[in-house]
Structures are given as structure tokens and as C-alpha cells.
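User: Let's play a game. I give you a shape written as C-alpha cells, and you guess the letters that built it. Ready? Here's round one.
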């Protein structure tokens, strides 16, 4: 059940395991490999084990709301730049496209948080850190933007608190410094 690849290297067909050299004489396929790799397609990891804590769900929802807000704002600027009469059409279109592209970061992070993927905490934290200066600049304006600044600051701070919570960290399978598993 082997075939030659383009490079002339023999590979197992459709993921069939290669027999261990020591067991080739016995004619059976070993349960696992010396490196600990198994045939299991989706092994249970700390990332996917256990129920999702409410704090993690709340953090994912807040992160998703920020992503949706960016996308809506970007689409609004884009439409107004194309259909309206902006001072600089190219600048308006560029800003709209940039905001829509930036919306992907928190939206993907929210999806990862809901799926309890450890990689998703980093993009979500980055989104919150970037939201704080935006909120500050909106709070400095003497306009209707002040409530938006308050809402953005509150959402960013709440999400950061939820993301660094020990329960959330444990659910994502993130270990602190110096707490790496013992090597055998």
C-alpha cells in the first residue's frame, strides 16, 4: 500500500502507518511510534477538554462585538467614500478597506476563543490594547464621540480582565512561566 511520490520517496498511502523496524518481523503494526505520535486524527488536548467557562464566552462575545463594530464602521466609510462626496475619495476608500481588514483579527480571535484555542488569546489581547488609545482619543473630543470612547474603553478593559483570568487561562491550556510539563 505504498506509492512513489514525485520526488521518488516512498510514502504511506492514505495515512496508513509505517511499521516499526523492530516489529516488521512479527508482522503487526505497533500501537504508537517511539516519538509518541498516534494514528488518532483529533487527539484530546487541554485546549478542547472540558466545558467552556462563562468568562471565556463573555470575552469571545466582547471581542466579536469589537470586530463587528470595526467591520460596520469600515463598510460605512467605504460606502460613504464611494457614494458620497468626500474631501479625498481615495483616502476614504483606503480607510474603509483597512477597517474591514482589521475587523478580521478580532473576529478570528473570537472564533478561536469560543473553540478554546490557546492561540486566540494573543490576537484578542492585542485588539484590546489597540482599542485603548482609540478610546482615549474619542474621550478627548468635545463631541458626540465621548460615549463611543466610554463604550470602547469599558469593553476593552472588561475583555482584558476576562482574558487574564486564571479560569480562562486554564481553559485555553495556557501555562504560566516556569510551569512547563515535566520532560521524561
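Assistant: Ready! My guess for every position:
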Amino acid at each position: 500500500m505504498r506509492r512513489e511520490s514525485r520526488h521518488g520517496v516512498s510514502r504511506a498511502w492514505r495515512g496508513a502507518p509505517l511499521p516499526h523496524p523492530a516489529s516488521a518481523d512479527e508482522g503487526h503494526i505497533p500501537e504508537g511510534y517511539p516519538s509518541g505520535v498516534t494514528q488518532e486524527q483529533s487527539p484530546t488536548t487541554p485546549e478542547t477538554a472540558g466545558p467552556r467557562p462563562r468568562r471565556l464566552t463573555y470575552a469571545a462575545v466582547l471581542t466579536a462585538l469589537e470586530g463587528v463594530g470595526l467591520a460596520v464602521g469600515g463598510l460605512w466609510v467605504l460606502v460613504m467614500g464611494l457614494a458620497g462626496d468626500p474631501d479625498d475619495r481615495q483616502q476614504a476608500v483606503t480607510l474603509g478597506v483597512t477597517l474591514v481588514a482589521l475587523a478580521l483579527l478580532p473576529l478570528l480571535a473570537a472564533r478561536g476563543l469560543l473553540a478554546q484555542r490557546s492561540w486566540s488569546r494573543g490576537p484578542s489581547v492585542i485588539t484590546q490594547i489597540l482599542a485603548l488609545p482609540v478610546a482615549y482619543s474619542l474621550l478627548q473630543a468635545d463631541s458626540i464621540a465621548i460615549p463611543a470612547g466610554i463604550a470602547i474603553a469599558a469593553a476593552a478593559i472588561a475583555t482584558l480582565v476576562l482574558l487574564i483570568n486564571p479560569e480562562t487561562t486554564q481553559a485555553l491550556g495556557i501555562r504560566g512561566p516556569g510551569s512547563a510539563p515535566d520532560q521524561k
